[in-house]
Specification:
By secondary structure, the chain is of the alpha+beta class. Helix content is 32%, strand content 31%. A 5-stranded antiparallel beta sheet has the order 4-1-3-2-5.
């Protein structure tokens, strides 16, 4: 059951996204995911997002939910975001 799973996303620039993905990878446990849609080849983006999933009591939850640009998502919104991703970076 997913009652203790938190879904969310952050919006940031590319340099910060790289840093956040490194932090996520460092503290990642088995149930956690971080996916960032990347631009299609030949395209550029100003803002990047990371779509996150983690249990309540993890280092990543404490780190990411304190960010001002963190937005909590419902499970359905999380699945819709993931479903819309064509190209991605994963941590």
């Amino acid at each position: 059951m997913d009652t203790n799973i938190i879904y969310g996303k952050i919006q940031t620039n590319r340099a910060s996204l790289k840093k956040y993905m490194d932090v996520f990878t460092k503290h990642k446990t088995g149930e956690e995911t971080c996916i960032s849609p990347r631009p299609k080849p030949g395209k550029a983006q100003i803002f990047y997002i990371a779509i996150l999933k983690f249990p309540e009591e993890t280092v990543n939850r404490r780190y990411f939910t304190k960010m001002k640009n963190f937005t909590e998502l419902s499970k359905e919104a999380y699945e819709a975001e993931i479903g819309a991703v064509e190209y991605s970076w994963e941590a």
